[in-house]
């Protein structure tokens, strides 16, 4: 099982017990680093540096900080019991959950927490940061928004399921989409604490949320459907893309990329007509992970015979060119 699968501007990071870093630079492709990070709950990369934060499977609450570019271990932060989620506030400040309901804030090169955030009444299941704000989802059914400078909780968003694990921001940063294993999505204006909509989807993982260029939200479901929603939660349309659960989504120009699971298919669609154009390649077995970012699409798959995981990376502009050549034949 790969817990972290992330694209940066230079690398693809696939993290399980071992973290493998691949360069997707066409001039220097190949494996960049390979190092053991131990069993873990969650792995996150800082978007503007080479830092990796690991919530390890450790009863003491060990959180590890790594340089993923060369596999160097920098520092650990220990306290609060087992941490299941972590977040970068910035390059030198971090947050981790605990075995209780507390959230710990850490500073690089310091051994003790700089602040403890209290307010949740259940274990924290997800942490995300935006600017200087920290967003936390908990088994108590709330999402709390914290000012990390003062430690103050500035909003409490209530009424969520216990297994909330998705905190997704719209492109303009205002609407917050909160979801998880039940497929329920609540859309909030987090700045004023007002809920805009509550909808039932089949999107149960963060890779099944995609922000369209027009501000709409596209979701993929375990039932193989693709749905489009306005920022206010109104359903625009729905169509079946796969006969199996959807693993991931991508959008490039006028085309949508849908990635299946056990069918091993990567399908290209004309977004305006919702018509299937062509598969990106022949089926590749079971697709376990998929991600897009920095102009790239990456998948991790395992063949039917159970061989080693295979990683593939494509440039989205080349996918767009490939899809464009098949538009006429689809109509």
From TrEMBL:
Q: What is the lineage of its organism?
A: Eukaryota, Fungi, Dikarya, Ascomycota, Pezizomycotina
Pfam families, alphabetized: WD40
PROSITE patterns on file: WD_REPEATS_1 (PS00678), WD_REPEATS_2 (PS50082), WD_REPEATS_REGION (PS50294)
Lineage, top-rank taxon, reads: Eukaryota
Does the record's keyword annotation contain Iron? Answer: no
InterPro entries attached to this UniProt entry: WD40/YVTN_repeat-like_dom_sf, WD40_PAC1, WD40_repeat_CS, WD40_repeat_dom_sf, WD40_rpt
Its function? Involved in mitochondrial fission. Acts as an adapter protein required to form mitochondrial fission complexes. Formation of these complexes is required to promote constriction and fission of the mitochondrial compartment at a late step in mitochondrial division.
Q: Where are the WD repeats?
A: 117-156, 157-198
- Give the record's family classification: Belongs to the WD repeat MDV1/CAF4 family.
Q: What is this protein called?
A: Mitochondrial division protein 1
Q: Which GO terms describe its cellular component?
A: transferase complex
The yes or no answer to whether the keyword Methyltransferase is present is no
């Amino acid at each position: 099982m790969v817990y972290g699968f992330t694209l940066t501007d230079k690398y693809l990071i696939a993290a399980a017990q071992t973290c493998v870093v691949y360069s997707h630079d066409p001039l220097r492709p190949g494996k960049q680093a390979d190092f053991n990070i131990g069993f873990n709950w969650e792995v996150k990369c800082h978007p503007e540096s080479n830092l990796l934060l690991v919530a390890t499977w450790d009863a003491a609450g060990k959180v590890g900080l790594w340089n993923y570019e060369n596999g160097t271990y920098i520092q650990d932060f220990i306290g609060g019991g087992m941490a299941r989620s972590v977040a970068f506030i910035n390059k030198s400040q971090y947050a981790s959950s605990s075995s209780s309901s507390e959230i710990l804030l850490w500073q690089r090169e310091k051994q003790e927490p700089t602040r403890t955030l209290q307010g949740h009444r259940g274990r924290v299941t997800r942490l995300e940061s935006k600017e200087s704000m920290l967003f936390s989802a908990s088994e108590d059914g709330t999402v709390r928004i914290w000012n990390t400078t003062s430690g103050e909780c500035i909003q409490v968003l209530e009424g969520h399921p216990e297994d909330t694990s998705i905190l997704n921001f719209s492109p303009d940063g205002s609407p917050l989409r909160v979801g998880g294993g039940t497929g329920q999505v609540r859309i909030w204006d987090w700045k004023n604490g007002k809920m805009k909509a509550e909808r039932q989807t089949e999107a149960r993982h963060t890779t099944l949320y995609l922000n369209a260029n027009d501000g709409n939200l596209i979701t993929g479901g375990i039932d193989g459907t693709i749905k489009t929603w306005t920022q206010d939660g109104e359903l625009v349309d729905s169509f079946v893309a796969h006969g199996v659960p959807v693993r991931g989504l991508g959008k490039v120009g006028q085309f949508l990329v849908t990635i299946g699971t056990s069918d091993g298919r990567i399908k290209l669609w004309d977004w305006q007509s919702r018509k299937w154009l062509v598969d990106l390649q022949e089926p590749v077995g079971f697709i376990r992970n998929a991600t897009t970012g920095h102009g790239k699409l990456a998948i991790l798959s395992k063949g039917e015979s159970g061989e080693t995981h295979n990683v593939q990376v494509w440039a989205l502009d080349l996918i767009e060119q490939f899809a464009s050549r098949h538009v006429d034949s689809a109509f």
